[in-house]
Fold:
Amino acid sequence: NPQSRIELGEFINSQGSVSTDLAFPFQPPPSNGNANGEHSILLDLVPNNVFNALASGQTIQVLLFCLLFGLAMGKVPQPSSMSLSQALNAVYRACTVLTNWFVWGLPFATFVLIADQTASTGTKPLTLMGGYLLVMGLSCLTFLAVAFAIIAIRSRRSYWTTTKTLQPLLMVAITTRSTVASLPWVINLLSE
Structure:
């Protein structure tokens, strides 16, 4: 309602210049001239560094690299490709196990972050946004309940088993808010 917006605006303005400071990265200004011409769009799809593209969340570049790498692997003789495939599978499994270990600490870390934020700003922002958080929370829970029901029906498993199976994926998705971080869990759950 308008009163809540006014109170939220007053709270943000009372924080001083800290809430309105902008961070500018140290990058050269973009050039107006197009040096690569018509091929610049295609060149932007190819990553300069795959790990940098992964870290910065450039999904299209990573996807293109994976497709090209997969095509190249198809052209390698089978004995060589099988050993590389087994090594990559072992790395994938090790990363999944490592992420699973970190998932158990995520609730505690999330609680610490929320406690730190609440201690520095107080409880007024939480009370002002309580209605919004309630509506969004109920909407998300309803959506998740329907999605879990569909998954349980399609996988021919009980609702409780489906919920327990998807628990690590939910923890990663909620705490990181990253699609890229959730992809290994989604692939693992779909394949198993």
Observations:
- The chain is about 80% helix and 0% strand.
- The chain has two domains: 35-75, 81-192.
- The two ends are 47 Å apart (CA to CA).
- The first helix runs from residue 2 to 14.
